[in-house]
Specification:
Elements lengths: L5 H12 L6 H8 L3 H13 L3 E6 L6 E5 L1 H9 L2
Antiparallel strand pairs: 1-2
Length: 79
């Protein structure tokens, strides 16, 4: 199983931020991995305060998340 990096997670989330956010499923799809492979980095990002809820996907009803100020800072320092 491939481990998703924090940098990879933050990059995908940044790409979808202006579109209203992303879900773990969308991030997994973008990175060509399973949701299970995203889970650890996602949990870390939420616990670190890098992500905040941003509404729900209108098609699938999934919770969407966007980067917080801390998330944008973390992305900038992990390049």
């Amino acid at each position: 199983m491939q481990k998703v990096s924090e940098h990879g997670l933050l990059e995908v989330l940044a790409d979808f931020d202006e579109l209203g956010g992303a879900s773990p499923g969308l991030v997994a799809w973008e990175l060509f991995v399973t949701e299970q492979e995203v889970r650890e980095a996602w949990a870390f990002a939420v616990a670190a305060g890098w992500l905040a809820p941003a509404g729900r996907d209108q098609v699938y009803g999934e919770q969407l998340w966007r980067l917080t100020g801390e998330g944008w800072n973390a992305r900038a320092t992990r390049r």
